Every structure is written in structure tokens, then in C-alpha cells.
Amino acid sequence: MIKKVSVNTIQKIKNNGEKFSVLTAYDYSTAKYLDEAGIDIILIGDSLAMVALGYDTTHKIGVDEMSIFTKAVARGVSRAMVVTDMPFMSYNIDIESALTNVCNMVKYGANAVKIEGCSDYILQVIKRCVESGVPVMGHLGFTPQFLNTIGGYNIQGKSYDATLSILEQAKKLEEAGVFSIVLEMVPEESAKYITENLKVATISCGAGRYCTGQVMVSDDMLGKFSEFKPKFARKYGDMRSLILDCAKQYDYDVKHGLYPSDDEVFKLSEDELKQLKIHSGTI
Ligand code: KIV
Description:
Elements: H1 7-15, E1 20-24, H2 28-36, E2 41-44, H3 48-51, H4 63-76, E3 81-85, H5 95-107, E4 112-116, H6 120-131, E5 136-141, H7 147-150, H8 160-176, E6 180-184, H9 188-196, E7 201-205, E8 213-216, H10 218-221, H11 239-255, H12 270-280
Parallel strand pairs: 1-2, 1-8, 2-3, 3-4, 4-5, 5-6, 6-7, 7-8
The chain binds 3-methyl-2-oxobutanoic acid (KIV).
The site of 3-methyl-2-oxobutanoic acid has 10 residues, from loops.
């Protein structure tokens, strides 16, 4: 039987000084392949707003859309932990609506949720989720849902004081019960210091080599999203070219009568063909 990745698996990896992998997925078949490949955590990131739905920021996706993609991904995964990003303002209004939205994601198949930030209110939300049996992944450093108050895609934790401030926030998240924390766009020396001073695992999203885990947007990793490439993303494939090549070939084949071939059509038996000819008056 497949052993599902749990919060205990992640803690064991952190305690043993090992590493784990996280990738985003938004659809059933991609999730299935990532799971088959051994990826430990599959994140339905709100990045899906931009890379899969074409919105210009992650602010434009809501719980309804995140729910659809959570259900699709969860149906494709057997081993990995499925984590859903709680979208912008889905947990910020009041604790009751936050818990309702979180609870629905779990009902749709998420094993955990990701929540950005560390205000006193967010800490309360996290505590209530964990008390209710929902593991929470924190997210510090650059937090895309706060883009407009941060003022741009700026690297976080660049000074000693800024690093200490992220560490302080991370410790508060740890105390509130998160099982891991994404550090986004943080210099690797700062992320190393933060990681070494925490009991829970950190996950680097452009935070260098010393975090416990690494996360990447799968569309960046596969070379599918081509509008921009973050410095920390590595292209392992070129799905954009693959899709273009296949689509052009298909277009050519259709227009030149090369698709479908004899092997790709359904045929009548001789008797059925005879009946057709009789009825259509061709014999
Ligand atoms: O939305 C997302 O995909 C994320 C990860 C890249 C951390 O938040």
C-alpha cells in the first residue's frame, strides 16, 4: 500500500536534514504524473490564477475557482500531500468565514492549506485550523497577496534586521502550529539562518539552497508559461515548443488529408457496408 506523505513525513525529513520536493499542479493528469514521479507535496497554488487562467495577478481568483482545481488535483494524487492555497481575502474577513472556506477545501480533497502572512488575526486563523485538524503551511518573505502593500516584487530579508523580523514571524507561525513555511524571494544566507533557527521545515521559493524543501510552479518547471521567468525558476522542459510543434503538425495533417489515417477511423463490417449501400441505393 502507498504510504501517504503526512505532516510527520515532513517533520522527519527536517529532523534528518533531508530534502523534499514541492510542485504546483492545477489539473488531474498533471497531478497524477507529478505524484507518480515522487513529488512529495502537490500545491494547488493561487499562481494558477496567472499561469492557468490568464489573470494578471493572483488577487483575481476566488474560492469557487480554487475549489474546482483542488478537486481535480486531489483525484489524481495517491501518495503526495495535497495542499491548497487559500486565495486572496478568503481567510481575512473573519474567523468563521475563514474556517468555512478552509473546511470546504478539505472536503474537496486538500490534506492541508497554505495561508500567507503573520498578523495576530492570521495567527488566530492558523491556530483554529490546526485545532480543527487542518494542517497549515505558512508563507513569509514576499507574499504575493500583499503585492500592493509591499509595493512590488521586492526581495525580502535583505538586512540583518529584516532577516530577524522574518525569523520572529516564522517563530510565531511555528507556535501557532504550522507544519512548514514557504520563504519566498529571500536571500539564501537569510533563509539559511531562518531555517537553522526553526523546528519546522522551510520551503524555498527563490530562497536558496538551505531550506528543507524547494517549490516551483510546474508551468515554469515544464517551460509551459512563457510570459516571464522568475530568476529562481529552472526550465526542465520546453512544453511551449512541444505544444506549438504538435499543434502545427496536427494543423498541417488535417489540412492535407493526413489525419485521420486508415488506422484511426471506425469501419463497418462487410455486411454492414452492404446494408448501407442497399439503403443508400448505391447497389
Ligand atoms: O501560488 C503558488 O504557486 C505559490 C508557490 C509558488 C509557493 O504560492
